[in-house]
Every structure is written in structure tokens, then in C-alpha cells.
């Protein structure tokens, strides 16, 4: 079973889980092979993702799984072009009109970058070094683009930011993989070696004539922190380039919600709480607020479990408080179906929180 974007769903795919409407009604049952009209209907209803049964041999996902019949460089180009249509891009935005405007712009930028031989070469090297680092950079780039668009960046600035977000971890390609693939705590010498990757990455990008200087700064400053406690230069506040500040927030968010060798993934709720708590310390609080206003943590129509054990479907998301949606309850904690259905507004019921997606 795998979760796929509604935009990657194809006629003939078999549902691994039933799809629910905001009112809790079953739109399509588990085991159904979907047709194109059904896919179109789900899109109109703003369903963002579904779970399908995986064939024994399938096509690659848009966020980084390689096909056996393509070269590394071809894979990188394909993954880059698919960014705007990935689950990550389409699930993250709270405003449907803003989403459409952004994705149209982002596709044009990605199409341009896919023909950027230096950038493709750098990303291919990153992919060959570690596929996880490559996929992580794609996710960070999408989120950074969304935040940049929300800040009113024109296409030139959005392009620079996207390049910086794609290449911010390029310095890792020059370090031994044991430094980030290790399950134990690094010793002092190893930690110092790992923390040199921003400088290494910046020097590498600075030698590339067609990489904008502002993009290269993302590699150098993405571990700087608003309170001056970051590295390598211990910059603080406005001393940190805005692009690097954006990339830093997106990097931490996606690092938290992704599993690592030494820990399981944090829930989206926990990641949001961390960013809120870090505003004014690790990150510029105004940027954190803007980021969280744009990011749809719990998309409308997705199924969620609540801290009281109930299961429900998200029916409304307030852009100002995206981590506390309105949830239509469909099943109680003991498994009993709910009839009639009712809603819990987590903005008002502060003692109940979303635990995770179901």
C-alpha cells in the first residue's frame, strides 16, 4: 500500500483504503479500481491523496524513486520536473487559488531549471551520494517556494530561492557518508567535521558561474539561527540572508517529519509545535507564522486520529491555526461508527489535538 497524490492517481489503480467526503460519507470503497470520471470527481471535491495497492512492478513516485530504465541524470530531471505535481506540493497549501497561481509559476521555474546543466549536475551528484538527501532537498525546495511566493517574491527571486533550496546540502557530497548515516551519537571530532558542510557547499557553489551568489548563500547559512547560536558564522537576526532563513525553516520541518536511522518521524503536530516554540529563538517568528499559514498540515478530506481516540475527517482548516482544524467525527475510540455525524472544532476544544494522519 502507498499514499499517492490525486494528481498521480491513474485509471485502473486499486484503492487500498476507502475515500471519504468531508461529511464522512464513503465516496469510493476499498478495493475499487478507479475510473477517470471518478478521479475527476475526487479532484473537484478537493481530495488531495488516496491510498492504493502497489503492483509488484510500478512506476516511480514523483519524489525520488528511480526507475531501472533511466540514468541518474534522467531521473534527477524527471524528479525535478515532477516537484510541482508531487504530493508534497499539492497537500501543503491552504488556499486553493494561491495554490494554482503558485504551481503555475513553479512549473515554469522548474522547467527552466531542468535545462540548467550545472544545477542538474550538482543534483545528480547529490542523488548519487544519498537518495534521501536528494529527496529531502526536493521537499525543502517546494516548501521554500511556497513561502517565497507568500512573501511576494517575483519570478527572479523565486528562481534564486529554489536553486538555493535545491543545493543547500551540496556540501554533504564532499564528506564521508558515515557522518550522517551513523546511528550512534557523533563524537566531538566527527561533529566538527559534519558542521563544516555549509562552508564546503558554499565554496563549491561559488565556483559555479551560473549559480547566483544569493543561492549559494543558502548552503553557507542554512544552519545559522535567529538568536546567533547557529553555525558556522554565528550570525543573528537580519545578518542571515532571507533565502537562508526560509531554507532553514523548511529544512527543519521536513527533517522532523521524516524518519531517520536513529529515530522515527515526528508527527506533523509535533513539528509545528517545535517551530512555534522556536520562533524568535532559532527562527524569525514572522517567517514561522507565514510558513505555517501557507502549509496545510492536515488537508481537507484527510482522515485523522484525535488524542481522545476518535477518528474523523478534516472538514475545514483555518489558515491562521492550521494545526487545529475542524474535524467531522466518523468513528468513536471504541470503533463504533458515529450516527449522526458531528464536528469538533479544535480551535475551541483546546484539550483535544490531532495525533496523526490515519
Sum this structure up briefly.
The chain is an alpha+beta fold and 358 residues long. It has helices at 36-44, 72-82, 87-92, 96-114, 117-129, 131-150, 155-167, 188-194, 197-206, 213-221, 242-256, 268-278, 285-294; strands at residues 2-5, 19-20, 26-28, 49-52, 303-306, 311-316, 326-331, 337-345, 354-357.
Q: Any idea how many domains?
A: 3
Largest sheet: 5 strands, antiparallel
CATH class of the largest domain: Mainly Alpha
Measure the end-to-end span.
13 Å
Assess the beta-strand content as a share of residues.
5-15%
CATH fold description of the largest domain: Hypothetical protein af1432
CATH architecture level-2 label of the largest domain: Orthogonal Bundle
Total DSSP E strands: 9
- Our Rg estimate from Cα atoms comes to 21 Å
User: Unreliable runs, pLDDT <50, ≥5 residues?
Assistant: 56-69
Mean pLDDT: 86
Structural class, by secondary structure, is alpha+beta
Question: What is the ordering of alpha helices and beta strands?
Answer: EEEHEHHHHHHHHHHHHEEEEE
**Helical fraction:** 40-55%
Instruction: Please name the fourth-level CATH homologous superfamily of the largest domain.
Output: Hypothetical protein af1432
Amino acid at each position: 500500500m502507498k499514499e499517492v497524490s490525486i494528481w498521480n492517481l491513474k485509471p485502473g489503480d486499486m484503492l487500498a483504503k476507502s475515500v471519504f467526503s468531508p461529511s464522512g460519507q464513503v465516496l469510493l470503497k476499498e478495493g475499487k479500481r478507479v475510473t477517470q470520471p471518478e478521479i475527476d470527481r475526487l479532484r473537484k471535491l478537493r481530495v488531495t491523496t488516496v491510498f492504493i495497492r502497489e503492483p509488484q512492478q510500478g512506476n516511480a513516485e514523483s519524489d525520488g524513486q528511480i526507475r531501472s530504465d533511466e540514468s541518474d541524470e534522467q531521473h534527477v530531471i524527471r524528479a525535478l520536473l515532477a516537484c510541482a505535481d508531487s504530493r508534497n506540493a499539492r497537500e501543503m497549501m491552504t488556499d486553493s487559488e494561491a495554490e494554482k497561481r503558485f504551481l503555475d509559476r513553479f512549473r515554469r521555474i522548474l522547467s527552466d531549471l531542468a535545462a540548467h546543466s550545472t544545477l542538474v549536475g550538482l543534483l545528480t551528484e547529490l542523488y548519487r551520494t544519498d537518495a534521501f538527501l536528494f529527496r529531502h532537498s526536493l521537499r525543502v525546495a517546494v516548501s521554500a517556494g511556497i513561502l517565497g511566493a507568500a512573501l511576494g517574491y517575483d519570478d527572479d527571486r523565486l528562481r534564486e530561492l529554489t536553486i538555493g533550496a535545491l543545493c543547500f546540502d551540496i556540501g554533504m557530497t564532499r564528506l564521508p557518508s558515515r557522518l550522517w548515516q551513523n546511528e550512534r551519537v557523533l563524537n566531538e571530532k566527527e561533529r566538527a567535521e559534519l558542521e563544516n558542510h555549509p562552508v564546503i557547499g558554499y565554496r563549491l557553489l561559488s565556483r559555479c558561474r551560473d549559480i547566483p551568489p544569493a543561492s549559494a548563500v543558502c548552503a553557507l547559512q542554512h544552519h545559522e539561527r535567529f538568536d546567533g547560536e547557529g553555525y558556522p558564522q554565528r550570525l543573528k537576526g537580519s545578518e542571515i540572508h532571507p533565502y537562508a532563513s526560509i531554507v532553514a525553516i523548511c529544512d527543519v520541518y521536513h527533517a522532523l517529519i521524516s524518519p531517520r536511522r536513529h529515530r522515527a518521524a515526528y508527527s506533523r503536530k509535533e513539528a509545528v509545535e517545535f517551530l512555534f516554540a522556536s520562533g524568535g529563538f532559532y527562527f524569525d517568528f514572522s517567517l514561522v507564522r507565514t510558513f505555517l499559514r501557507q502549509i496545510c498540515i492536515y488537508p481537507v478530506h484527510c482522515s485523522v486520529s484525535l488524542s481522545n481516540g476518535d477518528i474523523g475527517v478534516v472538514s475545514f482548516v483555518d489558515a491562521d491555526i492550521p494545526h487545529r482544524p475542524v474535524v467531522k467525527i466518523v468513528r468513536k475510540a471504541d470503533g463504533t461508527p458515529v450516527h449522526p455525524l458531528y464536528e469538533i472544532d479544535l480551535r475551541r476544544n483546546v484539550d483535544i489535538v490531532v495525533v496523526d494522519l490515519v
